[in-house]
Amino acid sequence: MSMTALRLESVVRHYGAVPALRGVSLSVAPGEFVALLGPSGAGKSTVFRCLTGLTIPDAGTVSVLGERIDRLRGRELRALRASIGLVFQQHNLIGRLSAIDNVLTARLAATPLWRVLARRFRDADRQLALASLHRVGLLEKTYQRADSLSGGQQQRVAIARVLAQQSRVLLADEPVASLDPESARQVLRTLRGIARDQGIAVLCSLHQVDLAREFADRLVGMREGRVVFDAVPGLLGADAEQALYGDAPAPQAAGAAARADHAPCHLAGAPETLLSD
Ligand SMILES: Nc1ncnc2c1ncn2[C@@H]1O[C@H](COP(=O)(O)OP(=O)(O)O)[C@@H](O)[C@H]1O
Ligand SMILES: [Mg+2]
Known about the structure:
Structural class: alpha/beta
Bound molecules: adenosine-5'-diphosphate, magnesium ion
Low-confidence stretches: 254-277
CATH topology of the largest domain: Rossmann fold
Largest sheet: 6 strands, mixed
Strand content: 15-25%
Number of strands: 10
CATH superfamily of the largest domain: P-loop containing nucleotide triphosphate hydrolases
């Protein structure tokens, strides 16, 4: 079995008296594109903050690329963070810089200061940046200012930057929330593509169940700080949306939801056969 790239186990986290995560377990394998679904306040962003080490759980464990990020501090934490690619809803790019210069910012940490000041990146870094822009279908926008690109194109530049960073994992917190449907689909298609071709583990939060069904390998639904389903799209019942957004009280846990609805959902860690197409 391949190593899990991202894993939360029984993670509990409160903000003061407010429970944000009430025992969340989920995992993402290399090359897998997992959609994290749920209404506002479900705890999705808190999952991302745990995975970047910005938030330490009250209980449970958080691993990234086999390392316990919830235990790392200082230099080790920074080193692991450098291998985590991030894409957010907005404020991803520096607007006055070109697409390629934004992608090259991924190489800053590995570039001597004089090269940064002289804007003389190594040829290898430029090649990597160009290949990354090509991969997201934006080679022809290489020298265009980021703030002149559409929202969807900007998100794809942000994905190219993650590729140039040579991250093995990508965390995308609502990357399509402010995009029109066609741009959203293009961004999700790009994310699915890089997961498959490059073996990157992608965890992407979304509001739309239909988009998740179309693009994700697996759907994890959260509500009120709990995972209420974890299933491949083909096995997810029509009641998935109801479980997330319906008026009924949230199911207590994924196992309970699966039993109560006779929905063929399963918990994280189910047999591999269920997780492949
Ligand atoms: N910094 C914070 N301080 C206090 N409460 C917070 C903070 N961040 C999140 N919360 C609370 O934790 C819960 C989960 O929030 P969040 O993880 O942002 O959910 P989502 O991303 O799914 O909308 C919510 O009830 C939210 O109000
Ligand atoms: Mg959020």
